[in-house]
Write a structure and sequence with these properties.
alpha/beta; TIM Barrel; about 300 residues; globular; 14 helices; about 50% helix
């Protein structure tokens, strides 16, 4: 078996793209999108008809973007057996009630397209407000994917809240350490992004949390391979192809020992804020990630309003 086939035996493989052709060819179980990936999808031939119809309509621009996100997600959902992740407008990252309302709107649009909530994950930024929104949504039967996770405390807050799935970012953590320290990574196991996901995975399993850990934001196949065995990994088409073209052995790196101990006390709001404030990587990358998604959301709106 090639490495992609081997990875599938120990980890649920997820495609991190809105490229329908790539998803059809690579056959992941699930797929994830975000405003940046939707912006790229808007330029692809397979979505030209949707973009043309939306740009010519007289609906509010925000509604057009929501409909495009669901249109892309619905098309992807037709060619995967699992779930599609669709992201809430990043400008709502600090507004719990608005995030809940937007999530329910997106689920309603999916329902109109004939896709049940069991085939969709709503992505929310793992701010304190986003986690609180996800907690409510989970209670209402809407499963969430808490994204832009850079700190252990963000992950723990999500587990405390019963969030279905989290996406800790590997590559962006590594980017920060490469740019801001003299760290030289000799082995993927020494990669701070890989270490972050490994710590979260081990903690969740040791304490019996149900929250799924899905490593995200990979820069190279070495990072992916170092997390083989993680619950899920969302990977770009380029890296999936590289794994598919490699026939060498892929050992499992993460596994659940089955041993359990009582979970620690739930993280308090003040402790969450302090921990993230004291971690310059986490605070900077979370802010930067939200800004980037906001920028691409606004580009999508400009395109749809043209």
């Amino acid at each position: 078996m090639n490495k992609l086939e081997q990875l599938r035996t120990m980890t649920t493989v997820v495609a991190d793209t809105g490229d329908l052709e790539a998803i059809t060819r690579l056959k992941p179980t699930d797929a994830t999108t975000n405003p940046s990936l939707l912006l790229k999808a808007a330029a692809l031939p397979e979505f030209a008809e949707e973009v043309a119809a939306l740009t010519s309509s007289r609906d509010a621009v925000a509604d057009k973007v929501d409909r495009f996100a669901v249109s892309v997600g619905a098309r992807i959902n037709q060619v995967i057996p699992g779930v599609i992740s669709t992201e809430v407008d990043a400008r709502l990252s600090f507004d719990t009630e608005a995030t809940i309302a937007k999530a329910e709107k997106l689920i309603g649009l999916y329902s109109d397209a004939g896709i049940g909530s069991d085939r969709v994950l709503i992505k929310v930024a793992a701010t304190w407000e986003g986690v609180r929104a996800a907690e409510v949504l989970e209670q209402r039967g809407i499963h969430c994917n808490a994204t832009l996770i850079f700190s252990f405390e963000q992950a723990c807050a999500c587990a405390d809240a019963g969030v279905f799935l989290i996406s800790p970012f590997v590559g962006r953590i590594t980017d920060w350490y490469t740019a801001n320290t003299d760290l030289v990574i000799q082995d993927p196991a020494d990669d701070p992004g890989v270490q972050s996901v490994t710590r979260i995975y081990d903690h969740f399993k040791a304490h019996g949390y149900d929250t799924v850990v899905m490593g995200a934001s990979f820069r190279n196949t070495g990072q992916v391979e170092a997390l083989a065995g993680c619950d899920r990994l969302t990977i770009s088409p380029d890296l999936l192809q590289q794994l598919e073209g490699d026939d060498s052995d892929l050992p499992q790196r993460l596994s659940d020992s089955g041993k359990r101990s009582a979970p620690p006390a739930a993280l308090r709001h003040s402790d969450f804020l302090l921990a993230n404030n004291q971690d310059p990587m986490a605070s900077e990358k979370l802010s930067d990630g939200i800004r980037r998604f906001v920028a691409d959301q606004e580009k999508l709106e400009a395109l749809m309003g043209a």
